[in-house]
Design goal:
single chain, alpha/beta, Rossmann fold, 6-stranded mixed beta sheet, 4-stranded antiparallel beta sheet, 8 helices
């Protein structure tokens, strides 16, 4: 299946480093389909290949062999310019280290991808303000990242990932640098996004993050070793972030 209801698809995905006897398989013949609206957690020990897999799915790295499809379109052969355009339009990224621009305010950090994607300044400001309000940071919109706590910075990063209404959000160890209280804040946001039907792929070693998913895939040595669907008591529907995923203008 590779129709419009499949957000992400990987076929025979391989990523190696080095050559000859020193060659290492970071990702080794991985096949994966992520339907639209699914929250998938990829779990495993450090060095198992889960972050590399996420980078391949999001077009941040190119596979050694295999195919990557986003919304029914094969993206791994695209030029660098076309890949960048695909990422801006279809993928939102959340990283462990936040990757905020230190010279920009929280609002400006959220606005930036929208401006790069061609939205007007007015549209970008409205979208950023609405997202910051929903993640509980409206009062911090004019603060620089250095004036925010780790949990607040990660919530800004989540808002930034959503600003272009991406098909899928890819999060790489999103709670890895957070304390327990901040982790719970971020997990609440991911739960709301899941309930609203946002497609999410969460790379983590934190079982609390995995518990927010519909499905958990475990990796070891670059391969999938387990694939488990979780029983979810919470029904699908529009959560409190639902209106933001498709916020108009």
């Amino acid at each position: 299946m590779n129709g419009p209801d499949v957000a992400l698809r990987a076929v025979g995905l391989v990523k190696t480093h080095g050559q000859g006897q020193s060659r290492v398989f970071a990702v080794d013949e991985v096949d994966l389909e992520v339907p639209q609206g699914q929250t998938l957690a990829v779990m495993g020990p450090s060095g198992c290949g889960k972050s590399t897999l996420l980078h391949l799915l999001g077009g941040l790295e190119r596979p050694t062999s295999g195919e990557v499809w986003v919304a029914g379109r094969r993206v791994d052969p695209l030029s660098e310019r076309a890949l960048a355009r695909m990422r801006r339009r279809s993928v939102g990224f959340v990283f462990q280290a936040f990757h905020l621009v230190e010279e920009l305010t929280a609002a400006e950090n959220v606005e930036l991808p929208a401006l790069l994607a061609g939205r007007s300044p007015r549209q970008a400001r409205r979208r950023a303000a609405a997202l910051l309000e929903r993640v509980g940071l409206a009062a911090r919109a004019r603060h620089l990242p250095s004036q925010l706590s780790g949990g607040q910075r990660q919530r800004v990063a989540v808002a930034r990932a959503l600003v272009n209404e991406p098909l899928v959000v890819l999060a790489d160890e999103p709670t890895g640098n957070l304390d327990s209280a901040a982790t719970l804040d971020v997990l609440r946001i991911f739960e709301e996004l899941r309930a609203a039907g946002q497609t999410l792929v969460l790379v983590t070693h934190d079982e609390r993050v995995g518990a927010t998913a519909d499905r958990v895939v475990s990796m070891r040595d670059g391969r999938f070793v387990d694939d488990t669907w979780l029983a979810r008591a919470q029904p699908r529907g529009l959560g409190s972030l639902g209106g933001l995923i498709g916020l108009d203008g």
